[in-house]
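Continuing from the previous page...

OK, I double-checked the sequence for 3-isopropylmalate dehydratase against my notes and this is the correct one:
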Amino acid sequence: MKQKFNVITSTCIPLPLENVDTDQIIPARFLKATDKEGFGDNLFRDWRYNKDGSIKKDFVLNDSRYSGVILVAGKNFGSGSSREHAAWAIAGYGFRVVISSFFADIHKNNELNNFVLPVVVSEGFLQELFDSISEDNKMEVKVDLPNQVVTNLKTRKSERFEINGYKKHCLMNGLDDVDFLVENRDKVESWENANK
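Thanks. Re-ran it with the corrected sequence; updated structure tokens here:
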């Protein structure tokens, strides 16, 4: 899942629902595993499949008109429990970016820790994205992490987004927290030696 992140341009999958919680993202019955593998198969499991395992054709992830590595979601995405498995499922499915007007803090950090970029935009910009996707399911969005700008390529409108400088560095260099420490081992050892 470790991938360097720079600029991503992609079509989008719209999920215009508010208050999507982590139990809807990955139901609790799938939390027994401690390995990240396979969680993408059960992303939005109860919305994607009927109880008998058959596909719900009306759910957006099952609609062949929509594809891409950007999920555009309604306000308050990732609320509920703090399960990291929800971010594992989003990353495992192949999403690189989730755009919303508000994320639950813990879920937002879990996404960042799993190399998925949560992009917070204004409610007006979010609605414009939903409208653009509805008008043209092949429209694309450009997410420029170095410049912290997201652009609706259909309307050419852009918004700047915020991200913690440390997490930005890690995403752009494909580093998790341990990798970052290893990369800076000499500095850590130097500081330790100077402060004995």
